[in-house]
Amino acid sequence: MKRVLTMLAALCLAVPVMAAELGDDGLHKADWMRETFKDLREDLDEANAEGKRLMILIEQRGCIYCERMHRDVFPLPVIDSYIRENFFVVQLDLYGAAELIDFDGEELSQRDAMRKWGMMFTPSILFMPQEVPEGKTAAQAAVAVMPGAFEAGTTLDLLTWVNEERYALDSEEDFQRYHARRIRERTVDLGD
To answer: What are the structural domain ranges in the chain?
Structure first.
């Protein structure tokens, strides 16, 4: 029976949800992304009101690694459902001209915010705490940053590590140890 359940779980993980479409801005648009006014303080308040974590997803037009994440990783049912249930996702464009308001109150273009935050790679994901100290930028306040594209297992493990607040200073298991343990415990190959 255990073998049958493992095989069923593997099949469910292998059947991806529909991949994201390209938007007019050339960025992939998953239906779990939120359309907001890009006032990050308001986005954080809304995420908290829904009992979710704010996740800032930074991408750029033509990014082959962004495409790979939207084609091979994000659509996996286990990851898609985990994002939907636990994260409030705001997409930003590495080179975007549209304005945003950072947590420190500065209003600037997305492109200028990316320079200010030191973002150079796409996709990059900033995971925000439930409260951002006054005067901090998104990059300064992030509890974790995923700089680049990773396989499904690493992505899922980082999502759970952040959601379970394992980054807290009193935690005895940093992400690398947590990820290594999760790889050993997995019953389904996620291509870590």
So the answer is: 18-149
Q: Are 39 and 73 contacting, i.e. CB atoms less than 8 angstroms apart?
A: no
Left if phi > 0, otherwise alpha if psi is -120 to 50, otherwise beta: which for 39?
Answer: beta
What pTM, to 2 d.p., does this model score?
0.88
Tens digits of residue pLDDT in 43-83: 999 999 999 999 999 999 999 999 999 999 999 999 999 99
Beta strand 107-109 with 124-127 is unpaired
Quick check: 123 and 91 in contact, CB under 8 A?
no
Half-sphere exposure of 135 (CA within 13 A, CB side): 0
Q: Which fold has domain 18-149?
A: Glutaredoxin (3.40.30)
Could you tell me the two tokens for 63?
A: 């990014």
Helix (H, G, I), strand (E, B) or coil at 77: helix
Distance CA 4, CA 68 (A): 30
